[in-house]
TrEMBL record:
Taxonomic superkingdom: Eukaryota
Name under which the protein is recorded: TTC12 protein
Record GO biological process: axonemal dynein complex assembly; sperm axoneme assembly
Cellular component annotations (GO), alphabetically ordered: centrosome; cytoplasm
Species, as recorded: Lophotis ruficrista
This protein's encoding gene: Ttc12
Keywords for this protein: Repeat, TPR repeat
Pfam families from the UniProt entry: TPR_2 (PF07719)
Coiled coil stretches, renumbered: none
Start and stop residues of the TPR repeats: 93-126
């Protein structure tokens, strides 16, 4: 007993001592973190070390100290700390991440990759981080190989390689005329032919020309450029295209240069066509692959880029197409969409509505693409909400639709097609503005059903299917305009997308409008079209067809006209089926119940098919409507 008591007392003292040491270690960790935030990495290392003196198995102290060692370029010590952290916790993602960074700095590329692969094994959701890290290793390894090769080329006396170093030396001469530098930059751009020359440009400080040469820097950064400064800026942009084409390391260095970073949006919006042309060409290089896009999105403030690039819709030359290509590529990046939200209401939408209302005066091919891009941006819920609530945007869309009735050029047709697509996306929202414009939009869509272009007809039906639920007045308007007869005609010949929109339009009308129900019964003798749609493999079409049929059975004689059809079997199949959309089962069950209530003779067929149990379960739906 005495021995056990001693053991228990010792355990309590050790627990108490550990708790006290843990408190001291946490305090020292916070002091180390504070020093790290202030950039005093030596002090941070000292505090973390003192903390480890109090508690040797505290993982956070090892990883924090490893991070500080990376800052002081003590990479071997950083690796050692990460190994200790992993002994404390073998699934510590931060330890593998920092170890990977340290191995990369020591040019241990294989070991670095292994660390990052461990991160993905531990946490598959870190795939984005894994890709970024692996890309960094690949770029660094390629950079080193390129630089080794370039050095050998110079040492071997390769004339092309030597010309790069000579031209850069000449450009370093101070206090020369601006024309001297412009000419030298053009010669240098012409001399850069391949990766070796691009690498020599980088290793010989070619990117420092802006910070080292005041005349070049002043000319490039001038707000109002004279002719010589325009020529200089164009020459620089051409040079940077030559040194950055297909070279990710050079792209990174250029984009992270403070002067270049600040000037990009200014040069894009400068209004000087020669500069804008070369700027667009330079930016296009970054968008040729995923890494370039990420560089651009990560290092540039893109809040104004949507507005700036949209302005090129007014250009009659190739700048418009190039700007739209850039915008289209940027919309694939989530960070760009997030940044677009900032200026959307105040700057972008006023410009966009102005372009729509001036369709006759702008580059219509570019406008069509611009509208399509805005439609794609509507995938972002915040952007879509702002656009859907913009009254001026709806007015501008309707104005363009009206103009298309009088101008039938291919370019205008593309604009109309794009605007209808945009409206469809905006109609995923529901607000008072949409209710306000519902009748006007519906009228335009009814008129567009006469178009020869099937794509436009399909989208017009799509808009109808989404706008009609917003307004009973719009439903009444289109029913009076003969929408049922037109939809039935299109449903007989239309493809799957047209049928999907068409039957949805009919279901909205039939739900609340008696005239629509009667028109449908009259237009679809014995419901041949609806029965065909009920056999579709598209669940949305089937669900809406069953919904339509259920409402039309309220018309006298409608249920009787189906007595010699296989409607009971079809509805029973869907009501008792396993469709992904529960609305298919529910709508089919409701239609089946209504069918038997309106015409009891259908119950005999139902009994033959052993479907009374399904009918009984469907009755609760019938009475709830």
């Amino acid at each position: 007993d005495g021995f056990l008591a001693i053991l228990e007392k010792d355990a309590k003292e050790r627990a108490k001592r550990r708790k006290r040491n843990e408190h001291l270690a946490n305090a020292l960790k916070e002091k180390g973190n504070d020093a790290f935030r202030k950039g005093d990495y030596v002090m941070a290392i000292q505090r973390y070390t003192e903390g480890l003196g109090k508690l040797k198995d505290k993982q956070e102290l090892y990883t924090n100290r490893a991070q500080a060692y990376l800052k002081t370029q003590e990479y071997a010590k950083a690796i050692g700390d990460c190994e200790w952290a992993l002994k404390c916790n073998n699934k510590c993602v931060k330890a593998y991440f920092l170890m990977g960074k340290a191995h990369l700095a020591l040019q241990h590329y294989s070991e670095s990759r292994q660390c990052y692969e461990k991160i993905l094994q531990i946490d598959p959701q870190k795939e984005s981080l894994f890709k970024d890290c692996m890309n960094e290793v690949n770029m660094e390894e390629k950079r080193m190989k390129d630089e080794e090769k370039a050095t050998k080329e110079v040492q071997s006396g390769n004339l092309a390689a030597l010309s790069i170093t000579e031209l850069l030396q000449k450009l370093n001469r101070p206090a020369q005329n601006i024309l001297y530098y412009t000419g030298g930059i053009r010669l240098l751009a012409g001399a850069v032919k391949d990766c070796t020359e691009q690498t020599l440009f980088r290793t010989n400080n070619g990117f420092s020309i802006l910070q080292d040469n005041e005349i070049v820097r002043r000319g490039f950064c001038a707000e109002r450029k004279n002719t010589a400064e325009v020529d200089l800026s164009v020459s620089l942009l051409v040079l940077w295209q030559a040194v950055c084409a297909g070279n990710e390391e050079n792209q990174r260095l250029l984009l992270t240069h403070p002067d270049v970073n600040a000037q990009l949006p200014k040069l894009l919006s400068s209004g000087i066509s020669e500069i804008q042309k070369e700027m667009l060409a330079l930016i296009s290089l970054y968008l040729e692959n995923e890494n370039g896009r990420r560089l651009l999105v990560r290092h540039q403030d893109l809040t104004k880029w949507l507005q700036i690039l949209m302005m090129f819709v007014s250009s009659a030359d190739a700048r418009a197409s190039c700007a739209m290509n850039i915008l289209s590529d940027l919309t694939e990046e989530e960070r760009f969409k997030t940044q677009c939200r900032v200026m959307l209401s105040t700057d972008v939408l006023p410009l966009f509505t102005q372009l729509l209302t001036s369709a006759k005066l702008v580059n219509q091919a570019a406008l069509a693409r611009c509208v399509g891009i805005m439609g794609n941006l509507c995938a972002d819920a915040v952007i879509r909400t702002q656009m859907a609530e913009c009254k001026e945007c709806w007015q501008a869309c309707l104005k363009l639709v009206d103009e298309c009735f009088h101008v039938s050029t291919p370019e205008y047709q593309e604009c109309l097609f794009a605007v209808l697509g945009l409206m469809m996306n905006l109609l995923l929202e529901s607000n008072v503005i949409i209710q306000y414009f519902a009748v006007d939009v519906s009228r335009r869509c009814m008129s567009l059903l006469r178009e020869k272009d099937g794509r436009i007809v399909t989208r017009a039906i799509g808009v109808l299917s989404r706008i009609l639920p917003a307004s009973s007045s719009a439903v009444e308007e289109v029913v009076k305009g003969g929408v049922v007869k037109k939809m039935m005609k299109l449903l007989k010949a239309g493809g799957e997308i047209t049928s999907s929109y068409g039957i949805k339009t009919l279901s909205v009308c039939a739900r609340s409008n008696r005239q629509a129900q009667e028109d449908l019964v009259k237009a679809d003798k014995r419901f041949s079209v609806l029965l065909k749609l009920l056999d579709s493999e598209n669940e949305m079409i089937v669900g809406n067809a069953a919904f339509c049929l259920g409402h039309c059975l309220a018309v006298p004689g409608a249920a009787t006209s189906l007595l010699n059809s296989n409607v009971v079997m079809i509805l029973l199949k869907h009501a008792g089926g396993d469709a992904t959309r529960t609305s298919v089962q529910e709508n089919a069950a409701i239609a089946l119940g209504k069918l038997c209530v309106a015409e009891p003779r259908h119950i005999f067929q139902l009994r033959k098919l052993n479907g009374l149990a399904i009918l009984n379960s469907a009755m609760k739906y019938v009475h709830s409507i």
